[in-house]
Specification:
The chain is mainly beta. It has helices spanning 2-18, 28-31, 80-85, 129-134, 248-254, 303-308, 352-357, 471-477; strands at 91-105, 108-114, 119-126, 139-150, 153-167, 173-174, 191-200, 210-211, 223-229, 232-238, 261-267, 277-283, 314-328, 331-337, 342-349, 362-373, 376-390, 396-397, 414-423, 433-434, 446-452, 455-461, 484-490, 500-506.
């Protein structure tokens, strides 16, 4: 039978070849495997009885590939929470994914690693040069070593590792709103982003960056530069082992100018406080804006309903924290806002633990009583709950509304005034006073006068909101009569407009 099948197919093939001049060429796929053909096309009559069509080999049912959880921990491996809770100088075993390699020498590697729960700084981990080349971004490794800390930086030392199956590259986590809070350290060593930071002078000479922390270095050394947010200044670093002077970020920092507003990415290193190791710098992107549609929960007022409510009546609103002014004795004072309007929440019931959660942009539902004090409308005797959602307001320019009845409609909002002239405040020619009457001292509220279109207004640096360690406090103390300034802050009211200023920039 086998010989007969071969003879039959040979004859058929000969007939097909003979007809090539009149018909299209048979495709390679059609003639590739005779075992799967059900018939052979031929014009001649068969010379023998046809044999039964060959039965196709059964096709196995397709099976789905098993789902693999790359974050699953092997036996004996700690979760990040267990690692974080472990005592210093104890042995730890973790599994994580390489995010960046900082250095290698003498068979030791320093690596940033991370999983979906947290991050690890692996310092001088035993590693051959050959294995170091294998530690590409995303590579999963199992690490055994000892948890320790150096000047605040928690790391794993005296470690060994093995490469495992799995790959994960973390997205940069935006921690801008956590700057200045105790919550920031929980993201230590993670790949993070900071947005809308303003470059500040790095020394008395006005340099935008320094080689080494004290300026004693040269090209190729670490770069140090200062940035500010909400009146607070932070020092960021380009670690030359991680990003040397051939990298884009090194060049970008060398080209910074004081006053530039920038977005950054990098690793949340710690040295005597937050000291991020930056890997990318770019011009700041557009500010976050609220969604077009404002959706309120059941029973929650719109801003128009809140504005129309009688004083001393209960109100329920939803808004987003923009700034925290103070906390003591389980009471918090907070500026909050949505796209419709703003609210001053005075002495709201709040534990110290919950106060730390009220980072900039956090959405809260507040129930309390609407009241007013010397023109300032506020919510008192309030309670709150944290909701899902985040929004940071852009400063609204209300300069042209100064001196008009319309300005009060923006009470408590985050605003900006531009092109104001600093005026003398008293007969002594002072540009500012400690307290409204000059009876205070460093650390008290600062008062200063500005002029716009021939009218004078009194602005304040509220020391609870921005104390004497902040940039804005220092900036106001350095003002000279006649300076032309732009300012940002919250549109507080006391016997008339009395903005609480959070940023000052001299423009002339």
């Amino acid at each position: 039978m086998k010989k007969f099948r071969v003879l039959l197919m040979t004859m058929a093939l000969a007939l097909v070849v003979a007809g090539c001049g009149k018909s299209e060429e048979t495709s390679k796929d059609e003639s590739k495997d005779s075992k799967t053909e059900s018939s052979v096309e031929a014009t001649a009559e068969p010379t023998a009885e046809p044999t039964a069509e060959p039965t196709a080999e059964p096709t196995a049912e397709p099976t789905e590939a098993p789902v693999v959880d790359v974050f699953a921990k092997s036996e004996g491996v700690m979760t990040y929470a267990e690692y974080a809770a472990a005592e210093l100088e104890t042995e730890v075993v973790v599994e994580a994914f390489v995010q960046a390699k900082q250095s290698w020498w003498e068979d030791k590697a320093t690596v940033y690693a991370q999983d979906e729960e947290g991050a690890y700084f692996l310092y001088n981990m035993a590693c051959s040069e050959e294995d170091y080349e294998k530690l590409t971004q995303g590579t999963k490794i199992k690490v055994t070593g000892y948890k320790t800390a150096w000047s605040g930086e928690v790391e794993i030392v005296d470690a060994t590792f093995e490469i495992m199956e799995g790959n994960y590259v973390a997205e940069a986590k935006d921690v801008t709103a956590m700057l200045g809070t105790d919550a920031l350290i929980d993201s230590q060593n993670q790949f993070v982003a900071f947005k809308g930071m303003t470059v500040e002078a790095a020394n008395a000479d006005g340099a935008a960056f320094l080689y080494k922390w004290d300026g004693s270095g040269q090209d190729g050394d670490d770069l140090y530069f200062n940035v500010s947010l909400d009146g607070n200044t932070y020092t960021f670093t380009v670690e030359s082992y991680l990003c040397d002077n051939t990298t884009d970020v090194y060049a970008a920092v060398k080209n910074l100018k004081v006053g530039d507003v920038i977005d950054m990415e990098g690793f949340l290193y710690w040295y005597e406080g937050v000291n991020p190791h930056i890997t990318a710098v770019a011009e700041a992107s557009a500010p976050v804006v609220a969604p077009v549609e404002v959706v309120k929960g059941e029973g929650v007022m719109t801003y128009a309903e809140y504005a129309a409510a009688e004083l001393e009546t209960e109100v329920t609103i939803e808004a987003y924290v923009q700034a925290k002014q103070s906390w003591w004795e389980d009471k918090a004072t907070v500026y909050a806002q949505d796209e419709e309007g703003a609210y001053f929440l005075y002495n709201m019931a709040c534990s110290e633990e919950d106060y730390e959660k009220l980072t900039q942009g956090t959405k809260i539902k507040v129930t309390g009583y609407k009241t007013a004090w010397s023109g300032e409308v506020e919510i008192v005797d309030a309670t709150f709950e944290i909701l899902e959602g985040n929004y940071v307001a852009e400063a609204k320019d209300v300069t042209e509304l100064l001196g008009t009845d319309e300005l009060i409609n923006y009470q408590n909002q985050f605003v900006t005034f531009k092109g104001l002239t600093v005026e003398v405040l008293n007969d002594s020619g002072d540009a500012f006073l400690y307290k409204w009457d000059g009876s205070g001292q460093d650390g008290d509220d600062l008062y200063f006068n500005v002029n716009y279109n021939g009218n004078t207004y009194t602005f304040t640096v509220e020391s609870y909101l921005c104390d004497n360690t902040t940039d804005v406090y220092a900036a106001v103390k350095n003002l000279q009569v006649g300076d032309v300034i732009d300012v940002e802050g919250f549109l507080y009211w006391y016997e008339g407009v009395n903005p609480h200023i959070t940023a000052v920039k001299v423009v002339e």
